[in-house]
Specification:
- The structure holds two protein chains of two kinds.
- By secondary structure, chain A is of the alpha+beta class.
- Chain A has helices spanning 47-54, 79-83, 100-110, 115-128, 144-156, 174-191, 202-208, 314-320, and strands spanning 7-18, 22-32, 36-40, 62-67, 70-73, 86-89, 162-166, 194-199, 211-216, 219-221, 228-236, 239-244, 249-252, 258-264, 270-272, 282-294, 297-303, 307-313, 327-332, 337-339.
- In chain A, the strands form four sheets. Chain A has a six-stranded mixed β-sheet, with helices on both faces.
- In chain A, α3 crosses α4 (115-128) and α4 packs across α5 (144-156).
- Chain A starts with 6 loop residues before the first strand and ends with a strand.
- The longest helix of chain B has 34 residues, at 20-53.
- Chain B has helices spanning 2-16, 20-53, 59-70, 74-85, 100-124, 129-136, 141-151, 153-169, 172-178, 188-198, 201-227.
- Chain B is built from eleven helices and no strands.
- The chains are: A alpha+beta, B mainly alpha.
- The A-B interface holds A 55, 57, 80, 83-84, 87-88, 90, 92-94, 96-97, 106-107, 110-111, 154-155, 158 and B 127, 129-130, 132-140, 143, 147, 150-151.
């Protein structure tokens, strides 16, 4: 049995209003310390709002958050105390009109550290993020990627226990993405810091995070929003058929006739080399185009007219002797298809 | 047309020879405008800042008041203050009329709403990420307010310079409350008005050049500060 890490955040019945009309509702969510957590979801699903809530920039509108044992609710006055235990990098970071060194020293100085100590911490953070050479530059003299790294140094200078990163790798080129991803892992590994980051990139979430939190329309959902397709549902006899736009037709259990969105749970798709003789109503043929390993789970992308992601255990993968370019059959029941 | 060119040449002579009267008049202008601008800054910047970052009932009304006061004519301010400090007025006993103090009071009333309204506009348009970033880095509310002020310093400096420029060049208040007393309350704009009415263009042109020079110098300073 694996030992559970202590809890950094425990959210219970937490509601957070974001003007003008967005509301985040988290019935329950626990975030362990010392791990890397990814928050995924579509645009407008509430990723940034959840991060703002976890950053204690404002108290929750209702419900509670327990942060390292400290209770935070709508009436809490200890937000500053909690904020000072964490660091945050915004999607579009702001750098003050000073040198990078002074920017990085802002956090420690705000916490009352002496100028000397603050500068030392800033220097260390800049070193950690590989920004030492740019320490005398001002914010407006940095590129987009450098700004993100600088903002990371600013957050790290205060030696936070939790680091919150909002779309850290968005709007930067691939090389810089890798560099920032390495930094995320390095922060977690070398500083024993809990890292929570938002991303659109599921591949990145799986690659970097120990846990993936999935959001949809302002609430946590128990599935990862993968394999979502636009389709048109029609009645054919007593069967409901969903024709995926630009892809195959599959039988579904729910959904009214007309345009719809469906989701195929990557964990409930059965992969085989040949068509299985089973009670499942859906069999899709396709070719493996992409494979990756994450935490003993293999993620396959199968081109079945549309790319479909399938998750299977490493043991199953080895047993089936699957390889890139190989033709396979995906089998699934109609109840494995969610109409969303 | 010759009198203009003659006046211009004579004006340059007055400037080059550092004519004592030109210097005395300029000193009154600089001294009074500087004091009134400093007082306007002390009151106007915090006022504009607080209204700018605050969200309270009546804020929009207050903003409208500031914007209206920005357009206050100098003669109206002169009239208002005159009625208060003239011998028959409620503050007549203080003996402020036709003093530099009276000019400072009038110019303060002129510049303060300008400084406050422009500061308010700067703070109102400030990048919302500044406050969020400061708070996320562990700043208190006061520290984050200070960060906003610090990041807006160029805009606020421009507001102060606009206030100074307005009072440095105004005539109405200086004439009505200062009385244009030679060697005491005569400043550049009132001297130019007087010399022009007398047909003495040389001194008027010399003072006009100083007025333009100061305005140019201030704008140059602002540009350099921006670039820095």
């Amino acid at each position: 049995m694996t030992e559970q890490a202590p809890i950094a955040y425990q959210l219970t019945g937490t509601v957070f209003h974001r003007p003008p009309d967005f509301t985040l509702r988290i019935p329950t969510l626990a975030i362990e310390t010392g791990k890397v957590h990814a928050i995924v979801g579509a645009n407008g699903s509430g990723k940034t709002t959840l991060l703002d809530l976890l950053a204690f920039l404002e108290p929750p509108s209702a419900g509670q958050v327990i942060f390292f044992g400290q209770l935070i609710n709508a009436k809490s006055a200890n937000l500053l105390e909690c904020r000072r235990r964490l660091g945050m990098v915004f999607q579009e970071p702001y750098l003050f009109h000073h040198t990078l060194m002074r920017n990085a020293a802002f956090g420690p100085l705000s916490r009352g550290a002496s100028r000397k100590d603050s500068m030392a911490k800033a220097r260390h953070a800049l070193e950690f993020t590989g920004m030492t050479q740019l320490q005398h530059r001002r914010g407006n003299q940095l590129s987009g990627g450098e700004k993100k790294r600088a903002a990371l140094a600013m957050a790290l200078a205060s030696e936070p226990e939790v680091l919150l990163l909002d779309e850290l790798t968005s709007n930067v080129d691939v090389n810089y993405q890798r560099l920032l991803e390495d930094l995320i892992l390095k922060v977690n590994r070398d500083r024993d810091c809990t890292v929570i980051f938002t991303t659109h990139n599921l591949d990145q979430a799986y690659r970097l995070a120990h846990h993936v939190i999935s959001l949809q329309s302002g609430t946590v959902i128990d599935f990862i929003p993968e394999n979502i397709f636009d389709c048109h549902i029609s009645l054919e006899g007593d069967r409901k058929i969903a024709r995926i736009v630009g892809g195959p037709a599959i039988e579904v259990a729910d959904g009214a006739p007309g345009p719809a969105k469906i989701m195929l749970d990557p964990g409930s798709l059965i992969v085989s080399r040949q068509v299985l003789d089973s009670s499942a109503r859906n069999h899709l043929g396709g070719r493996i185009t992409h494979m990756k390993l994450h935490n003993h789970t293999v993620h396959l992308t199968v081109d079945a007219g549309v790319p479909i992601v399938v998750r299977l255990t490493l043991a199953s993968y080895q047993e089936l002797k699957l390889d890139l370019g190989q033709n396979v059959v995906l089998t699934f029941k109609i109840h494995s298809v969610r109409v969303i | 047309m010759g009198y203009i060119s003659d006046g211009f040449v004579e004006a340059l002579n007055l400037l080059v020879s550092l004519d004592p009267e030109v210097l005395a008049i300029s000193w009154v202008s600089i001294k009074v405008a500087s004091i009134s601008t400093a007082l306007s800054t002390i009151v106007g910047v915090p006022l504009g800042f607080l209204v700018g970052i605050g969200r309270f009932r009546g804020r929009n009304f207050l903003v409208s008041i500031f914007n209206t006061l920005m357009a206050l004519p100098t003669v109206v301010i002169g009239l208002m203050v005159y009625s208060l400090i003239s011998r028959r007025g409620p503050l007549g006993e203080l003996g402020l009329l036709y003093t530099q103090s009276a000019m400072v009071i009038g110019q303060f009333i002129l510049a303060m709403p300008i400084v406050a309204a422009l500061t308010l506009a700067v703070i109102g348009g400030v990048d919302p990420r500044i406050r969020k970033t400061a708070l996320a880095l562990g700043a208190t509310d006061t520290q984050s307010a200070w960060a906003i002020l610090s990041e807006s310093q160029m805009g606020i400096l421009a507001a102060v310079v606009a206030g100074f420029g307005r009072v440095f060049a105004e005539v109405g208040i200086s004439m009505m409350l200062g009385g244009n007393i030679r060697g005491y309350t005569r400043n550049i704009p009132t001297a130019i008005a007087l010399e022009t009415s007398k047909g003495e263009f040389a001194l008027g042109i010399a003072l006009g050049l100083i007025l333009l020079g100061v305005a140019f110098g201030i704008n140059l300073f602002l540009q350099m500060a921006r670039r820095k």
